C-alpha cells in the first residue's frame, strides 16, 4: 500500500504517520526529518535547506526530490510506504508518479489529508517551538509557512481529488480519535479498490 499523507505544518502528520506505519507495517518516509538531519549534519544541501526553512519558505524541489528518489529505491519500500511531506505541489506529484513508474512500481493508492483550522495550527506550532527549541517556529515564520502551504498545496488537493484518491479527515481531537478516523478512511478506500 502506498499512501501520501498531506496536511499543513502542525496538523499531526508526523504522529499519525508513525502510527499508520506501525499499523500497516510499512515505512514512513518523512522529508522533513530527512531535511532536518541534513541541516544538523551541515551538509551542502542541509545548509541550503536551513536558509529556506528559517525564512519560512519551502525547500527547493531539486533538494527534496533527490532525497525522495534515493529513498524510494531502497528495498524496504517495495511492499509500500507512507510519504509524509512529499509531494507538496502538483509538479512534485507528477514527478513522484514518474519516479514510481521508472522503478517499476504501481502508483499511489490513497492520499490522506489531515485538516486543521489555521489558528489551531498556529497554537500547536508555537507550543512545539517552545518545547523543542525550534528556531523555525516563530509566529511570523509560521504564518508565512501556512500561507505558502495553502498556495502550493491547494492545487495538489484538487489533483488527487480528480484522481479519486483524496481522503480528507479532521486532524482535531485526540491522537487516538484522529488515528481511528484515518485508518477507517484508508481501509474503506483500499477495500473498494478494484483488484
Task: Give a brief description.
Pathway: Purine metabolism; AMP biosynthesis via salvage pathway; AMP from ADP: step 1/1. This protein is an alpha/beta fold.
What Rg do the Cα atoms give?
A: 16 Å
Q: How much of the residues is beta strand, in percent?
A: 5-15%
How confident overall, as mean pLDDT?
90
Please, how many helices? 8
What does the largest sheet look like? Answer: 5 strands, parallel
The structure class reads: alpha/beta
User: Based on DSSP secondary structure assignment, what is the total number of beta strands?
Assistant: 5
CATH level 4 superfamily: P-loop containing nucleotide triphosphate hydrolases
Uncertain runs: none
In the sheet with the most strands, the strands line up as: 2-3-1-4-5
Judging by the overall fold, what is the CATH architecture?
3-Layer(aba) Sandwich
- Count of individual domains: 1
Principal-axis shape: globular
Helical content stands at 55-70%
Distance between the termini: 13 Å
CATH class: Alpha Beta
Order of helices and strands: EHEHHHEHEHHEH
The CATH topology comes to Rossmann fold
Keywords: ATP-binding, Cytoplasm, Kinase, Nucleotide biosynthesis, Nucleotide-binding, Transferase
Catalytic activity: AMP + ATP = 2 ADP
Binding site for ATP: 10-15, 128, 173
GO molecular function, one term: AMP kinase activity
